[in-house]
Design goal:
With about 220 residues, the protein is mainly β. It is built from no helices and 21 strands.
């Protein structure tokens, strides 16, 4: 699968009117420079026929061995918390190079520790003993700390209700649950019988970080 360049070196006193390349796999070309990518391994024969405008011809044949590229396998895509690390592994080649280098403790090891500060897609290039190259990629998603926002504290008359709201997280837990129609909703309805300060904890979807906020609901009595 590497681009291979064949160049015709023809010495002739007369003008050359014919150039023909032919591979044993059936590929042909009439260009002085023949670019080709072999898709299968093994030995191929390449033949070059050159002819002058006066009808004189010469033929030369060469063989080329096509080597297989290594099949590189690395760690599956993963998610980590910011500040944590993960071990990335690669196999299938004789040597390896990882890039980008940010967050890695070793860029030429088969096994390296990654601690990126933001979501990063790493590429590992593996080189076989015969110099052929294969690549694989792994995406490390980094969960970030967050802040939740909530509606302002307010007051109601006893027997009335107030809708609370929170946003900025994937899930929520309100407490105390008394007086709420749903303690895990982002927008519960509060109907407390006495003035109450509600605490809401927001969670991300990968169990990395939380944030906490408070809303006070004052309850007034009718005169």
């Amino acid at each position: 699968n590497a681009n291979t360049v064949f160049t015709a070196n023809i010495l002739s006193r007369d003008n050359v009117g014919l150039i023909k390349w032919q591979l044993s796999n059936g590929a042909v070309s009439a260009d002085a420079i023949f670019n080709y990518k072999f898709s299968t391994t093994g030995t191929q024969t390449i033949t070059l026929v050159a002819g002058t405008e006066r009808g004189c011809y010469d033929t030369v044949s060469k063989t080329i061995t096509v080597l297989g590229s290594p099949v590189i396998n690395t760690t599956n895509d993963a998610t980590i918390c910011k500040g944590k690390s993960i071990t990335l592994t690669a196999n299938g080649a004789a040597s390896y190079t990882w890039y980008p280098s940010e967050g890695l403790n070793c860029v030429t090891c088969a096994n390296t520790t990654a601690a990126p500060l933001s979501t990063t897609q790493y590429v590992v290039k593996g080189t076989s003993a015969n110099g052929c190259v294969g690549v694989d990629t792994v995406k490390i998603t980094v969960a970030q700390p967050f802040k939740i926002t909530v509606s302002k504290s307010d007051s109601i008359c006893i027997g009335k209700n107030l809708q609370l709201s929170a946003n900025g997280a994937s899930s929520y837990q309100w407490s105390p649950a008394i007086g709420l129609n749903n303690s895990t909703s982002a927008n519960p309805v509060a109907s407390p019988s006495v003035s109450t300060t509600y605490k809401v904890v927001g969670f991300d979807n990968v169990s990395c970080f939380t944030d906490t906020a408070y809303i006070r609901v004052g309850v007034g009595q009718y005169p």
